[in-house]
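All the exercises in this workshop are built on plain-text protein records. An example says more than a description, so a record of this kind follows:
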Amino acid sequence: MHLHPVDIIIIVFFLLTSVFVGSWVSKRASKDTKAYFLGGNILPWYVLGVSNASGMFDIAGTMWLVSLLFVYGLKSVWIPWLWPVFNQIFLMVYLSAWLRRSGVTTGAEWITTRFGTGRGAKLSHLIVVVFALVSVIGFLTYGFKGIGKFATDFLPWHLSANQYALILMAITTFYVVKGGMFSVVITEVLQFCLLSIASLAIGIIAMVRVSPEALRRAVPAGWDQIFFGWHLNLDWSGLINAVNTKIDKDGYSIFGYFFMMMLFKGVLLSIAGPAPNYDMQRILSTKNPREASMMSAVVNVVLNVPRYFMITGLTILALVFYSDTIRRMGDKMDFEMVLPDALSHFVPVGLLGILIAGLLAAFMSNFAATVNSAPPYLVNDIYRKFINPQASERLCVRLSYVASFAVVALGITFGFFVGSIDSVIQWIVSALWGGYTAANVLKWYWWRFNGYGYFWGMVSGIAASMVVPLAMPDVRALNAFPLILAISTAGCFLGTLLTKPEDDEVLKAFYRKVRPWGFWGPVLAKVQAEDPTFQPNPDFLRDMFNVVVGIAWQTSLVALPIYVVIRRYDNAMIALAVVVVTSVTLKFAWYDHLTNMYSEKTAGPEQVAPVAL
């Protein structure tokens, strides 16, 4: 593709501006590790929310979502539950607050709060670091594949996908390493503004150029229906036959079974809390538990509405104007290339430069956030904890630079050997997180669970996530999740029940500070023996109600921009009505309780929940 000089100037200007801004704030970021890792806990919750949303608005994920909407239509709204996207609702409702109360720097450091400082806790601490680094490298590999595919179709210098990915990763690594959390957040907010402009522009272009009648002729019956039965019932025969092949390969034709598996996995993974990545880092960077919850709420609105304007606009442009080209490709069509191909054919000079810069911003935001989440685990949780506890702040910041370069190098190395974006996504969300789920559910909700149980649950889960895909290559990643979960759960229970419980003082301190609901009866009794006025967390039923309402709210926020862009205004009004009703409900059932839900004690004995068993 040949870019106009105007577009090239816009893209180069954006890249230079990102580097300049990141470098400009680096002095403030590098004064100590708290500033470098968490921005000094002084950044406003809404800024962190926009930053977090920008980090999630990644180019590889956007390419994947465009391909899903192209193939599955409105039913693709449900497929990101694979991550699961609704984990942000669980965070918003209660888990961000629980996590932020700990006052730690990393997920590994949190282990001390829950399990103390014994041998089991130390082993757990190490395995969290291992998982964090494996997941960070996985996400970097995923970003490497996405930006390489995108760049080869747009940038004008005739380099390979891997060469483009190397250059763009190097540019981003420079300001991330130098500036830490401050530079990441500030540049992400600027990048998100550009992304939003680009997203709305592409949505408007699509609405102007694609009539509802033209879209109906390009898609099969049921493409614009969000609800589904046991079978998918989307037949692309006579339109684009290769899409039927794609659906069979994905294994989503029995959509009811697929949906139940997603929901089962998604709920378990969501109640486990955030994985040790940039999402957790944003939560720990907020000022207090109340702002942590509000930050997670902002992500849902800020991310979904503009992103799906872009996704839907690009998809329907490709469906109406690019279908003939896709048909000629036959079964060789790479559906992950729908996004760059649609941009290259349908966006005018000038705006194309802004859009490409916006999508480069998406890559840089996600990449920057991911890289910035790794150094705390290597520096705080390995070097400072086990090698040199007296290390100066200046030395630790410099070691963070080295750690950042190291994880980037590993992510790039693995990126050379991965075939597609989808293959990385499937491994991360189904295999790797299958190994994470059991131990991280039990740590919140069961008092008897100990450090040894956590360690063996994570070890067996991570090992299974590596071995099962190799030993059973024909089993789809989502179908492998229950097996990996079962192996990890067995490790959790064996490790726990064959060893002693954690020390009473550790458990009581954790329960007083974090105040989770769940199976904490024996610990509650001991705390109340010392302080008869202490009451358990009474919010289980309200939290679960808010989770259900929140998932409906989030799903409607995704469906609304899709319906607007395809000009199904009747359905858009229904989606908007759901957004309004759920927003009002959350205002009274969730937001109005934020000021009271973090006090050390609850109001009175009539509020005691029956879940502290």
